[in-house]
Amino acid sequence: MDAEAFDVRKAYERIARLLSMIKEVAAREEARGAQVNIDKSSAELGMAVPEEDPFESVKYLDRALSYAHHAINDLLLGKGSRLHNPADYERHYDTILPFKEDW
Known about the structure:
- This protein is mainly alpha-helical.
- The chain contains three helices and no strands.
- Helix 1 (5-29) packs antiparallel against helix 2 (32-47) and helix 1 (5-29) runs parallel beside helix 3 (54-78).
- The two termini are 22 Å apart.
């Protein structure tokens, strides 16, 4: 992995911020399905301790982000919208998405 400990901490903060925004929307929309995935995402994020073990934390960040994407899809389904596809936003990322061939 090419990331430094600082990069892992930065990713942690960004995922936490994203999760906070998703929580706000889910509460406003009263989206119970999204809340289940938000809770799972929060639990995984809580397992990450980037200050102590940044590289072990990456797996928890990955899981937290995955559950966050499921929550986004729950919200989109509730609105009758098309599901979120992370690859659609790849041009905005500062890294390459892994396993792209699996999509």
